[in-house]
Amino acid sequence: MLAASTLADVARLAGVSTATVSRALNAPARVRQATRERVEAAVAALGYTPHFGGRALASNRTNTFGAIIPTMENAIFARGIQAMEEELSERGVTLLVATSHYDVAAEARKVRALLARGVDAIALIGHSRPAETLELLNARRVPHLLLWATSEAAGAPFVGFDNRAAARRMAELVLDHGHRRIAMLSGLTADNDRAAARVAGVREALDARGVALAAENLLEIPYDLDAAAAAAVALLRRAPRPGVVVCGNDVLAAGALIGAKSLGLRVPADVSVVGFDDIDLAVAVDPPLTTIRVPHRRMGRAAAQMLCAMVDGETVESRAIDVELMLRGSLGRAPAGS
Amino acid sequence: MLAASTLADVARLAGVSTATVSRALNAPARVRQATRERVEAAVAALGYTPHFGGRALASNRTNTFGAIIPTMENAIFARGIQAMEEELSERGVTLLVATSHYDVAAEARKVRALLARGVDAIALIGHSRPAETLELLNARRVPHLLLWATSEAAGAPFVGFDNRAAARRMAELVLDHGHRRIAMLSGLTADNDRAAARVAGVREALDARGVALAAENLLEIPYDLDAAAAAAVALLRRAPRPGVVVCGNDVLAAGALIGAKSLGLRVPADVSVVGFDDIDLAVAVDPPLTTIRVPHRRMGRAAAQMLCAMVDGETVESRAIDVELMLRGSLGRAPAGS
């Protein structure tokens, strides 16, 4: 069997960029007629068909992509998905977003619903899911990408950041501030690999310095402000009182601030609080949160570009995006007697 | 022409509820066989076809609804849409969400994209759009509903609350606290009837008491924390300094708090700030925001129920939902010299 010709072959023969070939095939109105004709001649000469089993043929395209996120609430995914949507809009693609409520069975149902609606490509969050979900996407040859993820799975590329390494850095910063009585508020780790990786990263840092995270000082709760405030109150009523509450995200940290204040505790003089994500909430609260800045917009735009390339039959490389430690007022030195 | 038989006629003849008829037609596996057969016999006897020109026929259903919201960011729409999604999920319907970026042309494109994907029904936000958008939905006989709205348009029912009346109540509360030097941070009112109605409500209250809202004290900005902080700084540097910043939503109010604090002003001793929406942010900031509580979850669940009924060929009544004034620490008496 002869090697199939590629988009790059078409581009070379037509004397244009691969992006122009994609455009000529998928949005011909946006390409000058002379260019379009050169591309069409090259496609015909090479017998070119895109990689994805015909799915990516211009005539089969719906120019609709799907994304399934765990929740729309509390802005964790909103900024990244919004940036992805903007980038896709500029390319004439509509993004349709469904939610799974952190439920892998619901995610599988939404995947089938999106496939039934004929989407060209699908973005999923993280790694927690049964193998069947990605197998179905592979069987249907629908390009798909994992966001907020840091390893490939079943051939699906990712764009994301290392949650474990980031949480470890944050915990090291906390230790460097003299804290030893450490509590943690985590999201529910079942079916949420990001939450689990953040707990693992904190444990790693503590273990390396011989500091314990007592079992009763680690609480798993939903990403909910009220739940976090109540859990922080429970943690901060313990004797000895924790000197810092390390939180799985900024929503939990904002709730911890409310809980600490409700007990009359000053932050950071009596207790420190740190978050993760750097959503708006992180700088709206007082004191502002020491947190991990996740480049949500960069991740979302990269995801859009990668998915478009995949639909065009191109091979893409997974991308790990750097996060940044944001040192703000909610983290102070460990209180005396720590 | 004979009057067409209705879902209620079928229910009466079959001796079951209209909900059971809907279920028998749309999710037959969820209905006992004997009941299903009674319903099918009644449908056949009456020659029943649902209202929406055959769209609602069980065989035509995709069990997929669409919603188009202005933005996913900053949680304004997230809670209501999430509640709608949950209610629809319980009924076996997948909600696909697209965003318009407060752009009526983009909204029209997303409507066409959702129609092309075969959705059974569509939810839209508010009233700002060209007539053609609803005309298209009517022509296609796709049931549709307006959320965050308070009047019907082109036959489309609504579920929402009166933004103008709510903003007027908030402004009256501010006046009752002795404030006369009033500034307002509004969202961009072009293509956003909710933002415009809130400004109108504030003006109404002030006019009724003979208090001026100076033109230079009303700024329109995007719903963005940083933009709001910068705008608040501009307002609060004016002489005489406004005693209160009335904000078009909680994101703007949270930004105004940041701006006030950056000038060394105490809230509410030196300046008061009030918001609108009562999203999580409202109680996460310090002091917590005096705001209007919008029952987002109730609105979202009602929208789901209404759209399902419409797809079943039923006539629904529009619903106005009450809002609530939440009096919290960010509003104080007017500072001396006001």
Throw out a few tags for this protein:
Rossmann fold; 338 residues; transcription regulation (chains A, B); DNA-binding transcription factor activity (chains A, B); LacI/GalR-like_sensor (chains A, B); homodimer; DNA-binding (chains A, B)
Write the layout of secondary structure elements.
The structure is a homodimer of 338-residue chains.
Chain A: H1 7-14, H2 18-26, H3 33-46, E1 64-69, H4 78-90, E2 94-99, H5 104-116, E3 121-125, H6 131-139, E4 144-147, E5 158-160, H7 163-176, E6 182-186, H8 193-208, E7 218-220, H9 225-236, E8 244-247, H10 250-262, E9 272-274, H11 281-284, E10 291-293, H12 296-311, E11 319-320, E12 324-326
Parallel strand pairs in A: 1-2, 1-3, 3-4, 4-5, 5-11, 6-7, 6-8, 8-9
Antiparallel strand pairs in A: 10-12
Helix pairs in contact in A: 1-2, 1-3, 2-3, 4-12, 7-8, 9-10
Organism (chains A, B): Rubrimonas cliftonensis
Keywords (chains A, B): DNA-binding, Transcription, Transcription regulation
GO molecular function, one term (chains A, B): transcription cis-regulatory region binding
